[in-house]
Amino acid sequence: MTTLPLSSQLDATAVREAVQGCRRVLIKLPDGLLHLGTRIADLLAEEDVEAVVSADPCYGACDVQESAAALKVEKILFVGEAPMPSLAGCYPVPAAFVMVRSPHDIYEALRQALPLLEGTTVGLVSIAPYLHRLPETAEFLQNKGFNPVIGPRSRRTSSDGQVLGCDLTAGTSVAGRVDCFLYLGDGLFHPLGLALASGKPVVAADPSQNRALKQEIQDMKERVLKQRYAALARAMDARRLGIIVGTKLGQRRLNLAERLQNMAEGHGLHAHLIAVDMLSPARLDHLDVDAYVSTACPRVAIDDGTRFAKPLLTPIELEILVGERSWDDYEFDQIL
Ligand code: SF4
């Protein structure tokens, strides 16, 4: 039996167990782990399990098309992603998940975060590769005199304290009783989302960079809000809208798209439903509409909105555009 030929972060035994009894599986990996795809396939071949490696981008447990079943696989193996409970039973074939744990030491980043925290009650959130470090992070905070609070999992998350780019429930559900948040993980999108959704100060402790950030998140929040306001201003003269429906299983909000279409038409706009797997300027810039409203992954409008030639609004921003909501009630779009 091969012993950990893959990576010190990925448990070969867990991979084998996840596909036990299958003859053929589809392996899906995020960009950072794509290099492991064929190595996992080699490992599974030793167990007489045939593997098809997906080279398409994989953005999370939400990222599945019904067409996966056409590959005649018995299981989809997500590597490096946490399960999304609300999708259990919805996948075209059963799904299994093997998490990848971050190898980074967390304590230097946590030490740097300490002087940036506000008050004493701290909401603690994280993402999949660091979730196993939350209990010791809470203990670390307690030993330093803080009162850590870990919010509950939601229907789209598998662990307490876990946040997604589209679901910040573990933070927003406790926002009323914490003084600030501490995010353990890399990247700034999740802390930015939490700052936008909760209105509370957010400190990001990033073990991959051995650093902690706070002001940068606040600056980014202000920059993003200005960009969103500018996108709304550009969309003011729009008459023809494209209401985007994501075709990925966990990003599909057809009912919301239809409600927005009716709302837009009720305000004298012409609105088409546009089905998209991946939102990309290369295709969306060419449709004959003046602006888009995306009901797919909420990250795209916030992260990549400026790459599109036409304004790309969130559902909440459409409500503001047509006067159903005021800018003062701006909310971060989430799939809950
Ligand atoms: S919808 Fe977007 S933010 Fe949510 S899990 Fe999928 S890729 Fe991540």
Give a structural overview.
The chain is flat. It has helices at 12-18, 37-45, 107-113, 134-143, 169-172, 189-198, 215-235, 254-266, 281-284, 298-304, 315-321; strands spanning 24-28, 50-53, 75-79, 95-98, 121-126, 147-149, 180-184, 202-206, 211-213, 240-246, 270-276, 291-294, 312-313. With 336 residues, the chain is of the alpha/beta class. 45% of the residues are buried. Helices cover 29% and strands 18% of the residues. The site of iron/sulfur cluster has 11 residues, from loops.
Radius of gyration: 21 Å
Order of helices and strands: HEHEEEHEHEHEHEEHEHEHEHEH
User: Biggest sheet, open or closed, and with what strands and sense?
Assistant: 5 strands, mixed
- What is the beta-strand fraction? 15-25%
Number of helices: 11
Name the structural class: alpha/beta
Quaternary structure: single chain
Question: How confident overall, as mean pLDDT?
Answer: 95
> CATH first level of the largest domain: which class?
Alpha Beta
For the largest sheet, list the strands in their spatial order: 6-5-7-8-9
CATH architecture of the largest domain: 3-Layer(aba) Sandwich
Any idea what the shape is? flat
The total tally of domains equals: 3
CATH superfamily of the largest domain: Diphthamide synthesis DPH1/DPH2 domain 2
Give a short overview.
By secondary structure, the protein is α/β, with parallel strands linked by helices. It has helices spanning 12-18, 37-45, 107-113, 134-143, 169-172, 189-198, 215-235, 254-266, 281-284, 298-304, 315-321, and strands at 24-28, 50-53, 75-79, 95-98, 121-126, 147-149, 180-184, 202-206, 211-213, 240-246, 270-276, 291-294, 312-313.
